[in-house]
Amino acid sequence: MSRWFLWFLLAPQVWLLAGLWRDAGLPPFDMGALACLFLAFFAERHAVPWLLLGLAIGRAMVDEAMLPVQILVLGVPVGFLLPLRTLFFSQRWLWQAFAAALCAVAIPHLAGVCGRLFEQPSATAQMDGITVVWSAVLLPPLLLLLRALPPFRAFVEPA
Amino acid sequence: MRKKPPAFPVGLYGMLLFALCWLTFRGVFAPIERVLVGGCCSITRLWAGLFGTPALAATEPATERLSAAADLDRRLRDHAVPINGDRWLSECVAVHCAVVAVSRRGGGGEMCELRLDHTYAELAGCRDFVTKGESLVGFLPRPGDAAASDDEPDDMARVLLANHPLARALHGELDTADGGRLRVVVRAAATVDPAPLKVDLWDDPYRAARLDRGGLRVLSREVSASESLLPGGLLLGTTRIWGYPRTAGGDALTLGVFIAPAIAPRALSHVVLWRRRTATTLPEGSDEATTRRRGRSMAAMVHELPGATNGRHLLVGAADVVDGAAVLQDGYLLGTARGLAFGVGLVTSFAASRQRWTLIWLPDDGALSPIELHAEVIATDGDRVVLRRLAASVPGANLHPTAGHLFTGSNGLHCPSGLWIGRVSPHPLDFDKFVVDVQVERGQRAVAVLSGGGK
User: Fold this and answer.
1) Cβ of B23 and A13 within 8 Å?
2) Residue A140 belongs to what domain range?
3) What is the band of B85 on the pLDDT scale with cuts at 50, 70, 90?
4) Is B268 helix (H, G, I), strand (E, B) or coil?
5) Among A115, B181, B328, B401, fewest CB within 10 Å belongs to which?
6) pLDDT one-digit tens code per residue, B234-285
7) Can you tell me whether residue B362 is helix, strand or coil?
8) How many Cα atoms are found within 13 Å in the side-chain-facing hemisphere of B23?
9) B27 at the A interface (CB within 8 A)?
10) What confidence tens digit (pLDDT) does each residue in B344-367 have?
11) How many CA atoms lie within 13 A of B204 on its CB side?
């Protein structure tokens, strides 16, 4: 129970940490892609829907669109990647970099599509090539770090 | 024995399905969202206070903004009434109303219904047609009519545009290129038609069939026997020809004539109704002196969220903030708010928002009329915002004006028109774009949150 409390307390705040990272002038990466990779490859399978909710709440703080749009924007890539978990599980750097770039491209497009469909436009619907490249470079090591930190550590599925 | 995990994440797909239901029935799930995101922002509130400095008091530019807002009000009133001196004009006084909502698709797939900031009771004694400049906008139904069957006199009045399926037929006339004049009956077109209105009947179908050029102005015609009692000379729109163009071997073949109205409903901020001078006692609340609505203002504070280059702010101290409420800082529009539980809210700045805005461009040249626009932000670079025009209330008229001030138009009940946004100028390369220089300040600031509307 306490891990869930910690999750909903701390996990949404990672979006603000990512904002601080960007404000500090560090290379930009797509926090949504990091969240998707964690949920798809490392999180406990049965817990994924509720973990997704916590992360979507965090994204709703920094993004203009409504909470259900955030659930769709993060959840659809996870839904595609989750069945591929056996391929990506453990720290396979190259595959993870590829998946990170894929997510960094897909998430803005999904945000754009959802924005048009549900009249919930947001600034995150614009893809940035630099962010895609840095996401591919930074997300595999950041995933390694994330899995060692609370509250994410408590939801990592044993290999 | 360890159970093999399922290949497909049923729980996740269930959550995605739930999100779709949420988006379909937004009103039902809105309280859940307010509590979930509000709870999360309550934690953020603790460390958001670490950022920024207190706000400054009003400065000299604020005085300039107030002066520009007063100028906007005057020029909106001056240009909102027809300039020709028909008899009916002298018998009536103008009642300026703000548009608070646009809804329902009608002829040509365009919006066909407006909601005004006045109630039916406040508009008692007004004639039933609504104008904008020299153009006809639509008609005011009575509460209980077929188009307003559920409305009560205390409800905000709706206006049926000419392309509404229940709108009445209009009598009109147009001057042809050969110097003649054709009389027509105009009705709402179908949703799939290429324009909102179509010509239904002609007084001379033979001559009408030889019309091969669009762009002719169609004006209303006063018909004494008609139930509408619409005055003549109001602009209904311009013609669009539907058919086959002239070829080398033969004449053009006109299959139908459609009419594109001069006003774009989404760009409308204000319309004018006409009250007969004989209606001596004005209903309470029917103040005609200003185009600006008064609402409730609440003091609050905004804190920057980390990564605030995205233009997201935490709003603290304003209880019961409604979604879409305008947030003002030092006399200019900071953005619109989303209300959450636990006394917090979120604000998206104008520069960071990607919603579509109804705006008013007030050119510096005092002789030019204000332009009502429907536009969206497409790019932001620091304090410079690029917008793309989607529609204008009077197409083709003065759409590339000189620099000026940009104000909000009517963006719903809680974001009234006349809020200063920034200095605006035409885009140097693209006719459909324009550039706005907005105020960008950092840190914790005092703001005012507007809510409510109506006079």
Assistant:
1) no
2) 2-154
3) low
4) coil
5) B181
6) 888 888 888 777 777 777 777 788 998 888 888 888 888 888 776 555 554 4
7) strand
8) 20
9) no
10) 889 988 888 888 899 998 888 877
11) 12
- Read off φ and ψ for residue B197, nearest 5 degrees: -125, 155
Task: Judge whether B420 and B333 are in contact, CB under 8 Å.
Answer: yes
Beta-carbon separation of B9 and A48 below 8 A: yes
| Predicted pLDDT of residue A1 | 76
Tokens of residue A120, six digits: 């919930």
- Hey, what domains does chain B have and what are their CATH numbers? 46-62+293-451 (2.40.10.350), 80-167+265-276 (2.40.10.340), 170-260 (2.40.10)
pLDDT band at B227 (very low <50, low <70, confident <90, very high): low
Between CA B410 and CA B21 the distance in angstroms is 30
A159 domain residue, yes or no:
no
- Cα–Cα dist B195/B176, whole Å: 20
**For chain A, how many structural domains are there in total?**
1
Burial class (CB in 10 A: 0-12, 13-18, 19+), B22: buried
* Parallel, antiparallel or unpaired: strands B384-392 and B404-408: unpaired
Q: With an 8 Å Cβ cutoff, are A16 and B44 in contact? A: yes
* Residue-by-residue DSSP string for B146-178: GGGTT--TTSEEEEEETTSTTPPPEEEEEE-TT
Is any Cβ of chain B less than 8 angstroms from the Cβ of A81?
no
Q: How many residues does chain A have?
A: 159
Q: Which of B33, B87, B358, B7 is nearest to A53 (CA)?
A: B33
Which of A16, A89, A117 to mutate against chain B (most B CBs within 10 Å)? Answer: A16
Residue A48 C-alpha, separation from nearest chain B C-alpha, in angstroms: 7
CA distances from B245 to B175, B194, B197 (A): 21, 16, 21
Residue A109 in domain: yes
